[in-house]
Amino acid sequence: MPDPRIQCNICHESFTIDRFRFLVACGHGYCQECLRQIPRRHGTIVCPACRSEDRWEPRQIYVTFEEPMVPTLSVAEGVEKLVAYSPAASIGHALWMVKQEAYAVGSSYLLDAAQRVERHLAFASAALERNRLEVLEACKAMKSRLDEAESMRSEVVGLRTRLRDTNAKLETADTLLEDATARAEIERNKRFRLDMEVKKLEEALNKQAEKASPMRILRILWVSLFAHGCDIYISRECGAKFWELAIPLTPIRGVTLA
Length: 258
Hints:
By secondary structure, this protein is mainly α.
């Protein structure tokens, strides 16, 4: 008897059971080619049918199938016993038995398939609900992070605005400082030139004072007294020097010792 063939729910190809591997967590099986193409996350494989996670490697199972012809031997034997002269009722009953058995076998297959689909849908619905809750939690976390990022972005925009204002004020202060430094340098140069001019004038005056002799001073005083007839006041030291240098004269008008 040929080995029964099983259809893979992914590629919909039929294979013998030795080409199938079954997941330990949920029991669903797929062909080896499709299992190799299923992505793995952190060493786990997710079942395509029920979305359950399995950390074990898919396993091969070993089963002994029931001979499909055993329950139909009685019907086959009854058909074989029919001959050309058998009554029409016997022939009709044999055909009815064959149809009923075929209908029963087909119905059981359909029922099994429906039950399998229902189980798959139940597993898939539960897995989808879990995935939906996980996605909602992830979305909530992402929304919280987005709110924090938006708040930080607003703070960064405010800080950039304040930084631009501060830089503008610093540039203005630098300009004013440069102007003040330039004006101070100009005033310092002017003061230096004035100090140099005053120094030159003082040196010139000192030289002129060194050149002036007592007789010249006396002559100036004499001219001031007698030529112009003005009254002057001189200190006793100067007066003593004056009388010491001058020849005896008559009293001088307007000269008073201070």
